[in-house]
């Protein structure tokens, strides 16, 4: 059964991805391919950019599939 919510920690925040909401717009991996790459497992690697860059990219997700949670 697919998971509803996947979590990727980064310092004092967590990137949340909800696959059911993702519309595969490609905005995240075109904007920040070092962190978001659907051909890779895990497809999100938060170590590959700084927190501010990741937060800014998450804010551009049009579907709300990506979000940020404070730890
Ligand atoms: S930007 Fe959001 S909707 Fe688009 S592929 Fe990434 S997670 Fe999915």
Give the gist of this structure.
Helix content is 18%, strand content 21%.
Write the layout of secondary structure elements.
Blueprint: E1 6-10, E2 13-17, H1 27-31, H2 51-58, E3 66-70
Antiparallel strand pairs: 1-2, 2-3
Bound molecules: iron/sulfur cluster.
Q: Can you walk me through this structure?
A:
By secondary structure, this protein is α+β, with helices and mostly antiparallel strands. Helix content is 18%, strand content 21%. The chain has a single domain (6-70), classed as Alpha-Beta Plaits (2-Layer Sandwich), CATH 3.30.70.20. The protein has helices at 27-31, 51-58, and strands at residues 6-10, 13-17, 66-70. A hairpin with a 2-residue loop joins strand 1 (6-10) and strand 2. The radius of gyration is 11 Å and the shape is globular. The protein starts with 5 loop residues before the first strand and ends with a strand. Residues 22-28, 61-63, 65-66 line the site of iron/sulfur cluster. Residues 22-28, 61-63, 65-66 line the site of iron/sulfur cluster (SF4).
